[in-house]
UniProtKB/TrEMBL annotation, chains B, D:
It comes from the Bacteria. Belongs to the ABC transporter superfamily. Pfam families: ABC_tran (PF00005). Coiled coil: none annotated. This is Amino acid ABC transporter ATP-binding protein. Keywords: Amino-acid transport, ATP-binding, Cell membrane, Membrane, Nucleotide-binding, Transport. The keyword ATP-binding applies. It is a peripheral membrane protein. Its main location: membrane. It comes from Sporosarcina soli. GO terms for molecular function: ATP binding. The keyword Nucleotide-binding applies. InterPro entries: AAA+_ATPase, ABC_ATPase_HisP-typ, ABC_transporter-like_ATP-bd, ABC_transporter-like_CS, MetN_ABC_transporter-like, P-loop_NTPase. Residues 5-239 form the ABC transporter domain.
UniProtKB/TrEMBL annotation, chains C, E:
Residues 21-220 form the ABC transmembrane type-1 domain. The chain crosses the membrane at residues 20-45, 102-120, 202-223. NCBIfam families: HEQRo_perm_3TM (TIGR01726). The keyword Amino-acid biosynthesis does not apply. It is found in: Cell membrane. This is Amino acid ABC transporter permease. InterPro entries: AA_ABC_transptr_permease_3TM (IPR010065), ArtM/GltK/GlnP/TcyL/YhdX-like (IPR043429), MetI-like (IPR000515), MetI-like_sf (IPR035906). Keywords: Amino-acid transport, Cell membrane, Membrane, Transmembrane, Transmembrane helix, Transport. The keyword Cell membrane applies.
């Protein structure tokens, strides 16, 4: 029964949201270190709309900067991954900052800002497994590997010759269970998630490659999603350009340190 | 004599099975007509057709001058003028005895609950079921159910009563009581159509007796004629086998 | 799976779990009640006998076609897609901005209604024809017959099915997180996502689900027994003495 | 004379309502006993207790020397030796007429289908229902249902038959037929317990008559005694009201 | 939403959609059938009257407690969690490597069984007590009574509910993608992810779902009418001539 009223009152002005000085940002709030849910406003958490919890993480910090730069009040809308794009298209939110990569296909439906983070692909494996010390992706030939559905993580698996590609999973927790249970040998992820996972779960090890996956930058980069032809693009790009590479790294390091499971 | 119900060329088939064949007869106001005949001859079907629980396959049913088979006719208000006691009783399973007699009065006749209960209690007393007002159908004996069914129909205070073997589950003592009730009701001008297998009962109560055989009315006449001097061979045959 | 960890997690996250469970209950309780009413109404309408008059017949036919389409359409498509279409679609196409919670309740209600309509149909089928006939014989029309005689008996018989539906609703609200309703399942996924554990948060969620569904089961069982009515009846007044008609007439 | 069923101190209550109070009587092999009494006096309940469809609240029921209320007793094999015709008929709704009479023989007595159908047809012919083998219960008239119920019970060829008002829905002609069948069956040594409201029928068919009143056996005796010289005031009262 | 795009997408992806739909049908058909059998069995067992003998009574009580726990547990917890526990849990705890499809069928079956058991209970409740009594009177034991008299009547009355359950299964298989079963919903999401369009692929999926569920509805309606039996009976032999007992005896 929580938050019904709040949600009603804040969304009632939808449509002319810009005039009301509110910036609605969508994310899953469940994908650390990019975004997560916490119970209080510690470490700069932002209240989630229609809900008593707060969102924190790298995406939230970036969203804060964007909102500040636009001179608007930041509102986080917590929505399932699959609901983010329809949400944006239908005007329920103004921006997506959800660790989302600006792939070609996505660009057909929505626009993206410039990248606000770039990482690289890693593999998460079980500690003590024969893959722990792999250096090349080809070391995973014959291994049972998967990745998240509808992400480039899953697509790049094909670059491993002779890999035993498993069906994609639609969420990270499920993949982690699969890995822990030995149903798979590893899953493809990105560095931040890898650091978080391996620090949160002592059974997991993140493998970084010297001969890694070949990927376009857009597939490992993260950018803010915007409605097609949004006039916000240029302004947001300006704001993002003001955040130096070093600052980004600092924010990410803080996020990894602050994420709830790391305590 | 005013005809309350006039049945003309009534036919009813179930598939290829013709159950009623060209039935023609009428009932006058205040008349008590008993319908007798062998099992499966169509007696219940005739009553059910009159009440439109079965749609006749052909013919006309004229009630106080109007053809009730006419599409324009309001079936529901017609049915409130007819009371029916079913061969299988069909008490409402979700109501107790009192409520069985009350619900129709309240919902259809729009009587108040108090009024309806008073009427219901009157007729439940008549059939000796007033002490069972709290019981449900499944808790009653056969004869008790039948008596409640009679009380339910009477509570609606209809113009015509259709009784389908109303004494089949009753002991002789109770049959006597019901007979008494019917005679009294007849005096108040209630028209009654009674299907029965109890010849003594038919003899006692009826102004006229209809003998049905295989879907046709084989003979109609006053009880003296039917029971003492039947004109039809089939009637004689039927009555001969009755236990003397 | 470690117990200390679970306890720690509960201590840290209990407001999230509880609020999620509260939202789940709110949506499923209201949705089931409205859905049951829709189902009963649809049941009443779909069992109307074919009228004699042509105009009425066509009207009834039309209503029935609409009802059947409604039932088949909502039963036949995934609720998650319905939710997206109704919530995002209505905003896209008509600029309607629905409240998420209200949208969720609407979606659950119309889905439940479609399923309940079928339960009611099965329930009406199982009622003895004599009950309808007796009601018609006292002059009740179709609606009166259904309300006063048939549906009360149907309701008791389909209570177990309603219980099932309620439980399904409690669990199915989970798909509504695509429209941003943060019910129990979504909250659990969040906890799972940020704690990098799976079984522990879902273990807690399962217990919460189970407590909710089992409570529902117990409540419905209680109603079942109530609707059954007392096993025995009590007699009124003095020992049986068959009243003489004559006596009655005097009184 | 060998006692087939011996009922001792049988009691049955529904809640606080004591329906059978200390019933004591026995039936000998091949005997035909009619039970008469007013509506609600406990006749059906007595039959249902004998068949264990109701669990007696107290007392003993001895069948061929064994107390069947004993927990060790196999109820199902006991019941196959008892045939029952219900007051409400209770035909199986999901079976047609023939199948109603066959299913018990095949499933319980383990007869072959052919054998069972032969037996069923024999008894369906006896009650004049052989032409309706394809019909379902809902398509039959009251009397037709009752006759099928009789045929179903007879098809099991039991040692004891319990009839609960087996002629209530039958026309006089058919009552005569059933009476004839019963007399023939009695000659083959079948024991019969018949609840009936038809005094003429009871007079004709029974070796002994039991008169029940408010849950107790008020009087037992040969039909001549009960109908002509009842010793009890209550019996006289009950029979007096019978239509002459 | 553009039509050309949809057509193009179907042309490009139809094998994926079809395989997804095939898997969905396979799991839900087998799951519903096995589930219905479980439900009927549970219904038979749960309606056994309390036996006289103590040993039997305790045995029955135990079985009933187990059955009730089974029903309440599987109804009461989300299928997605059950799937994870059964599939990954068995690998974690015992190193069992189950086939995904078989695991999916098992999960759907036991869930359907739990729901169907409640439908059957409601259905048995609605059968006239006289039917049980008549069966007992010819000497049938509980199982014979249920199989030959009660369940055939119950099945007809709960066919609409079974139809609902089948449809729910068709849709609920979607949660099984957590154990890597690639059924229709998963395939649709894949297509949606690749093309980054939502409404179009889901529109196609909805049509496929609808075709499947509506086919099921039509098939079940056909069975309903069949189980109803013919509306009229045909008479055998010559016109009624009541046979004399004497005649019969001779033949
Ligand atoms: N719904 C039905 N479908 C098919 N045949 C039916 C149906 N209802 C009745 N019949 C048939 O119609 C005939 C007449 O039935 P009806 O109930 O009118 O007989 P009845 O004269 O009342 O007999 P009884 O004295 O035994 O009650 C019977 O042969 C019966 O089988
Ligand atoms: N299940 C029940 N619960 C409560 N009371 C019951 C139940 N069954 C029967 N009774 C009561 O027991 C009494 C005896 O019923 P029973 O059916 O034996 O009468 P009966 O002698 O067969 O009467 P009838 O001639 O009317 O069939 C009745 O008063 C009835 O209301
Ligand atoms: Mg009849
Ligand atoms: Mg009785």
């Amino acid at each position: 029964a929580c938050g019904t009223k709040e949600s009603g009152s804040t969304t009632s002005s939808e449509g002319e949201g810009e005039q009301k000085e509110v910036l609605r940002v969508g994310m899953e709030a469940g994908y650390p270190p990019f975004n997560w849910t916490q119970l209080d406003d510690a470490n700069g958490g932002v209240k989630i709309e229609g809900n008593a919890e707060y969102a924190g993480g790298y995406d939230v910090e970036i969203a804060k900067k964007i909102a500040e730069g636009l001179g608007k009040e930041l509102v986080i809308v917590k929505t399932e991954w699959d609901g983010l794009v329809p949400s944006l298209q239908s005007g329920k939110i103004d921006v997506i900052t959800a660790g989302m990569s600006p792939t070609e296909e996505r660009k057909e439906s929505i626009d993206f800002s410039d990248n606000y983070y770039t990482s690289n692909f890693v593999m998460i494996v079980k500690k003590g497994s024969k893959y722990e010390n792999a250096t090349s992706i080809q070391d995973f030939s014959g291994a049972k590997i998967t990745g998240q559905l509808n992400t480039s993580h899953y697509g790049v698996i094909d670059q491993i010759e002779g890999v035993n590609k498993q069906p994609a999973s639609d969420n990270f927790p499920a993949m982690r269970v699969a890995l822990e249970s030995g149903v798979i040998d590893g899953y493809v992820s990105e560095r931040p998630e890898g650091i978080s996972a391996s620090s949160a779960n002592p059974n997991f090890v993140m493998v970084e490659f010297t001969e890694g996956f070949v990927a376009d930058e857009e597939e490992t980069a993260v950018a803010a999603g915007l409605k097609k032809d949004s006039e916000l693009v240029d302004k947001i790009n300006e704001i993002l350009a003001d955040i130096s590479e070093e600052e980004r790294q600092n924010i990410m390091d803080a996020a990894i340190k602050n994420q709830p499971a790391a305590e | 004599m005013e005809k309350v119900i006039d049945i003309q060329h009534l036919r009813k088939s179930f598939g290829t099975h013709e159950v009623l064949k060209d039935i023609d007869f009428s009932v006058a106001k205040g008349e008590v007509v008993c319908i007798i005949g062998s099992s499966g001859s169509g007696k219940s079907t005739l009553l059910r057709c009159i009440n439109l629980l079965e749609r006749p396959s052909g013919g006309r049913i004229i009630y106080q001058g109007e053809n009730i088979l006419d599409a324009k006719h309001d079936i529901h208000s017609y049915r409130t003028k007819l009371g029916m006691v079913f061969q299988q009783f069909n008490l409402f399973n979700n109501h107790d005895v009192l409520s069985n007699c009350v619900v129709g009065q309240v919902k259809v006749l729009k009587r108040t609950k108090e009024e309806a209960e008073k009427v219901a209690m009157k007729y439940l007393k008549v059939v000796g079921m007033d002490r069972y007002v709290n019981a449900r159908a499944r808790q009653l004996s056969g004869g008790q159910k039948q008596r409640v069914a009679i009380a339910r129909a009477l509570s609606m205070e209809p113009d015509v009563m259709l009784f389908d073997e109303p004494t089949s589950a009753l002991d002789p003592e109770m049959v006597g009581e019901v007979l008494k009730v019917m005679k009294e009701l007849a005096e108040t001008g209630l028209t009654m159509l009674i299907v029965t297998h109890e010849m003594e009962f038919a003899k006692e109560v009826s102004d006229r007796v209809v003998f049905m055989d295989k879907g046709v009315i084989a003979e109609v006449g006053p009880p003296e004629q039917i029971f003492n001097n039947p004109t039809q061979e089939r009637t004689r045959e039927f009555l001969k086998r009755t236990l003397k | 799976m470690s117990l200390e960890w679970i306890i720690q997690m509960i201590i840290n996250n209990w407001p999230m779990f509880l609020r999620g469970a509260g939202m789940t209950l709110l949506i499923s309780v209201i949705g089931t009640i409205i859905g049951a009413i829709i189902g009963l109404l649809a049941g009443v309408i779909r069992t109307i006998p074919v009228p004699e008059r042509r105009a009425k017949r066509i009207l009834l036919k039309t209503v029935n076609v609409i009802l059947t389409s409604y039932i088949e359409f909502f039963r036949g498509t995934p609720m998650i897609v319905q939710a997206m279409v109704i919530f995002y679609g209505s905003a896209l196409a008509f600029g309607i901005d629905m409240d998420r919670t209200i949208a969720a309740i609407v979606i659950v209600s119309i889905n439940t209604g479609a399923y309940m309509a079928e339960f009611v149909r099965g329930g009406v089928m199982s009622i003895d024809k004599g009950q309808f006939e007796a009601a018609h014989a006292v002059g009740m029309n179709h609606v009166q017959t259904m309300l006063n005689v048939v549906l009360p008996q149907v309701i008791r018989n389909i209570l177990p099915a309603t219980g099932n539906q309620f439980i399904i609703n409690i669990k199915d609200t989970s798909v509504l997180n695509v429209i941003g309703v943060t019910e129990l399942y979504f909250q659990t996924k969040t906890v799972a996502g940020i704690s990098f554990k799976y079984f522990e948060p879902f273990f807690v969620a399962c217990i919460l689900y189970f407590v909710m569904t089992f409570t529902v089961t117990l409540i419905l069982r209680y109603f079942e027994r109530k609707l059954e009515g007392p096993e025995n009846y009590s007699m009124i007044g003095q020992p049986a003495q068959i009243t003489n008609v004559a006596n009655t007439k005097e009184s």
